[in-house]
């Protein structure tokens, strides 16, 4: 198959990591894959396989995520069998792509994706009504499409995110803990996410700051983004700057997963959290706000717990509980994530869907 994946920019976010993973996996399976971005470059660009063709529509980076000059012309030059739209900006172009391709390339399947808990721009909503099919990355996201946007369930397939950082055997990194001043008794709370307002690291800092005085904790925040400086200032304002560690963007955060004790996430806008999936795969129990789809990333009540928005006390109790879970619970989390979010399984689900839409023999 000739597969075109469309993404606005290869920033360090979860959707972008999924785009790279899928592109590399499709190419490894023998398909001709092009990853087309609106903007050139990006932190994740170097992680693309040499077997994937990467093209950009902006000749130089204009820092405009929505600007896709010559998108339809690019498709005309090499019409693919499958066009997979990844991210909000790419999905906004679904209707215009369908309009141009329907008559000239009736066998091209244009697939939209629902990978966000944010309110959808009207162009996104309009496009979802016209694309060939939609992939939702959680059952909660599919329910939102059906109940809120009136899209028939037969047009939606749920394919969960894949593990980007597969579980490997890592010993607890005592040296890394010591570098940050954490003893063996310290509960290291970890969140890996871009610093955007909707990811809500600011409130997560407030939650950690409110933990009991006799509970030893540190909060490790990995990532970068526009809300980073504000969060750093907020930690200083609350007097917890020595206990909140800002670790920056890490291309591979596996050492953090192997070293922390509890995954914490206060995001108010999700569809399915890559971070929580990866944390589970490394045996970290999870405590998170009940954003859309979040509780599909763990086994509620067993390997993680969803918390109602604003319930800091509930968050505190769950953190203290999961900081002391048994090795058996951590192993259960690993097994769950490796089974439910195995890359080979998710990639095959995409390829099976593509074959079905193209009416290829199985």
Brief overview, please?
The chain has 14 helices and 13 strands. The chain is α/β, with parallel strands linked by helices and 362 residues long.
Fold and architecture overview:
This protein is an alpha/beta fold and 362 residues long. The protein folds into two domains: 2-162 and 342-358, Rossmann fold, CATH 3.40.50; 174-340, Rossmann fold (3-Layer(aba) Sandwich), CATH 3.40.50. Helices cover 37% and strands 17% of the residues. The protein is built from 14 helices and 13 strands. The strands form two sheets. Strands 3-2-1-4-5-6-7 form a seven-stranded parallel β-sheet, with helices on both faces. It has a six-stranded parallel β-sheet with strand order 10-9-8-11-12-13, with helices on both faces. Helix 6 (139-147) links the parallel strand 6 and strand 7. Helix 8 (201-209) packs parallel to helix 9.
Write the SSE topology.
Elements: E1 2-7, H1 14-28, E2 32-37, E3 53-56, H2 71-77, E4 82-85, H3 88-92, H4 94-104, E5 109-114, H5 122-128, E6 133-136, H6 139-147, E7 156-158, H7 174-179, E8 187-192, H8 201-209, E9 217-222, H9 228-237, E10 244-248, H10 254-259, E11 262-265, H11 274-281, E12 286-289, E13 304-307, H12 312-322, H13 327-340, H14 343-358
Parallel strand pairs: 1-2, 1-4, 2-3, 4-5, 5-6, 6-7, 8-9, 8-11, 9-10, 11-12, 12-13
Helix pairs in contact: 1-14, 8-9, 11-13
């Amino acid at each position: 198959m000739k597969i075109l994946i469309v993404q606005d920019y290869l920033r360090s976010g979860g959707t972008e990591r999924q785009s790279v993973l899928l592109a590399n996996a499709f190419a490894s399976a023998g398909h001709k894959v092009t990853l087309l971005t609106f903007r050139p470059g990006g932190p994740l660009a170097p992680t693309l396989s040499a077997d994937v063709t990467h093209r950009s529509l902006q000749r130089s980076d204009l820092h405009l995520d929505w600007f896709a000059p010559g998108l339809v012309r690019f498709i005309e030059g090499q019409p693919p069998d499958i066009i997979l739209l990844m991210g909000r900006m790419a999905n906004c172009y679904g209707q215009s792509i369908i309009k141009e391709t329907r008559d000239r390339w009736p066998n091209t399947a244009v697939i939209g994706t629902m990978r966000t808990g944010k309110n959808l721009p009207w162009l996104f909503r309009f496009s979802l009504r016209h694309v060939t099919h939609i992939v939702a990355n959680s059952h909660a996201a599919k329910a939102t499409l059906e109940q809120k946007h009136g899209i028939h369930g037969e047009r939606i397939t749920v394919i969960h995110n894949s593990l980007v950082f597969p579980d490997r055997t890592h010993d607890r990194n005592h040296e890394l803990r010591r570098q940050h001043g954490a003893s063996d008794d310290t509960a290291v709370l970890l969140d890996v996410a871009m610093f955007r307002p909707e990811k809500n690291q600011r409130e997560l800092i407030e939650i950690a700051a409110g933990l009991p005085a006799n509970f030893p904790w540190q909060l490790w925040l990995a990532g970068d983004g526009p809300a980073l400086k504000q969060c750093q200032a907020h930690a200083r304002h609350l007097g917890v700057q020595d206990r909140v560690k800002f670790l920056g963007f890490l291309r591979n955060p596996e050492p953090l997963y192997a070293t922390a004790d509890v995954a914490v996430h206060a995001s108010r806008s999700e569809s399915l959290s890559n971070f929580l999936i990866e944390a589970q795969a490394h045996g970290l129990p999870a405590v998170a706000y009940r954003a859309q789809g979040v509780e599909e990333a763990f086994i509620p009540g067993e390997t993680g717990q969803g918390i109602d928005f604003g319930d800091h006390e509930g968050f505190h109790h769950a953190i203290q509980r999961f900081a002391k879970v048994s090795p058996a619970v951590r192993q259960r989390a690993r097994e769950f994530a490796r089974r439910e979010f195995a890359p080979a399984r998710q990639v095959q689900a995409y390829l099976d869907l593509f074959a079905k839409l193209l009416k290829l023999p199985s």
